[in-house]
Amino acid sequence: MRGDASKVRGDASKVRGDASKLQGDASKLQGDASKLQGDASKVQGDASKVQGNIKKLKSSQCDGRG
């Protein structure tokens, strides 16, 4: 009987450890998602900058100054 109780306690500890690990994994994934969002924003900003440069080039060519 005592052996069963300690086995159950051990199983409960293992489950708690697994839950903690999963929580840690979830936090890591959330951090990764935030980083990716930041990267996406940066790429969008870069794209806007490039678009602005293209417009500038086009307008300078139209003026005959290009």
Strand content: under 5%
Q: Assign a percent range to the helix content.
A: over 70%
* Broad structural category: mainly alpha
What is the distance, rounded to the nearest whole angstrom, between the alpha carbons of the first and last residues? 91 Å
Mean of pLDDT: 90
Shape: rod-shaped
Region (Disordered): 1-66
Protein name: CsbD family protein
Biased composition (Basic and acidic residues): 1-19
Explained architecture:
It comes from Desmonostoc muscorum LEGE 12446. The chain has one helix spanning 2-62. The chain has 66 residues and is an all-alpha fold. It has a domain at 34-66. The longest helix has 61 residues, at 2-62.
Compact overview of the structure:
The protein is an all-alpha fold and 66 residues long. The chain has one helix spanning 2-62.
Secondary-structure blueprint of this entry?
Layout: H1 2-62
Q: Keywords, please?
A:
mainly alpha; CsbD family protein; single chain; 66 residues
